[in-house]
Amino acid sequence: MPSIHRQDIKDTMLLCEIAKKTIVDVMRRNADEGEPGRWRELSVGELVSHARDHLSTAYLCLTTKEDAENALVRLAMALIKLEEENTD
Fold this sequence. Notes:
Layout: H1 6-31, H2 44-61, H3 65-87
C-alpha cells in the first residue's frame, strides 16, 4: 500500500472541512425552499443528474460558486443513498 504524504493528509483535512461547511450552508440555505428530507425520495440517478446540471451551469458561467456548492451537496446525497442501498 502506498504511503500517504503529510501534505496529502493536510490537504484532505482541509477539503473535508470545506466540504462539510459547504454542505451545511447549502442545506440550511435550501431548507426554507422546500420540505426537509425530500431529497431522500429522489433516486441516485436523479441526484447525480441534478448535480450535473449545477456543474454545467457553474462551468458555463464560470462565476457561479453557488451552483458548484449545490452540485457538491447533491453528490454527497447520492453517496449517502448508495451507502444506504448497499447496507440494506
